[in-house]
Amino acid sequence: MNKELQIPSHFNKNEINEIKQVPYQVRFNEAKNWAKANDVLPAAKDTFRVCLMPIDVQNSFCLPTGELSVIGADQDNVRLCEFIYKNLNNITNISPTLDTHTATQIFHQIFWINDAGDNPDPMTMISLDDVNSGKWKVNPAVAGSIGVNYMALQKYATHYVEKLSTEGKYALCIWPMHTMLAGVGHAMVSAVEEAVFFHNVARNSQTNYEIKGVNPLTENYSVLRPEVLDDSKGRPIAQKNTRFIEKLLAYDAIVIAGQAKSHCVAWTIDDLLNEINSKDPTLAKKVYLMEDCTSPVVVPGIVDFTEQANDAFNRFKSAGMNVVKSTDPMNTWPGMK
Q1: Which residues belong to CATH 3.40.50.850 in the chain?
Q2: Which of 43, 27, 135, 155 is nearest to 89 (CA)?
Q3: Which of 230, 266, 310, 337 to pair with 156, CA 20 to 30 A apart?
Q4: Full-model pTM
Q5: Could you give the C-alpha distances from 255 to 59, 84, 142, 147, in angstroms and in order?
Q6: In this predicted model, what pLDDT tens digit does every residue of 149-166 receive, in sequence order?
């Protein structure tokens, strides 16, 4: 591991929640000069290759005004930016995930109606009993817009909710509209995007953005696979992100941060661990979870997923993954060369 670097002067932690246009050309020139002044080599020369995967570091999850704002995300992002700048010469590639939605998806209001023609409110939980009893059914007006026959779509929706009840991570929740494609909430937190861009230029390493969540027929907590892969007849409606899984596992180290610890972070790690266990369980030791750059979903007085998040991280650690702090030098992390 190379020594830690000084944080560039443009970074201001007090502006972590500001939505701003990154001055790309200015940062391009600064990054080239900064890399030269600090003897930062192109990532292609790395002999020990590290991939940083920031999960869903987007305005919808991270800003206080976000539709699904995670308490603590702002300070998580301060530490994440500082980690990127300090360890820019140790990070080979950055592969951020971007939760990406449109209005007509199975977990949004417009997809469902009741007999009165009303849509469910955000945060409504739809159970298999609700669908079988007709309390909630597919909105027939949306079938054509997603290219599925109404009766077939209703049958699929029943199958989907049943599948979640037996195999899914969570029951079907009607989520508030968030990370809407082309909207402000979909964008990466500006300060983090700026740090990622700076890394791209300084190390000549193309940022690898991974889009998830666009399929109207399934949820995608994890970037590695959707919640449901097939319809009631076993025909595929989605697939695992095999290409990205193979890309991640080709690195010597995979560093993970982002939001939320209890949901998209936990389930991405869980899917990664399942892939590792199916190939070689000893590969778990190459995964590093930056616990101080992620926070669980907590809505005071309503829901608190802290315990579930901590239990998941303890399970990942028991499987051989490393739970670390971003503020500790990378050369003190177990197994880092």
Answers
A1: 21-101+179-332
A2: 43
A3: 266
A4: 0.96
A5: 21, 11, 40, 39
A6: 999 999 999 999 999 988
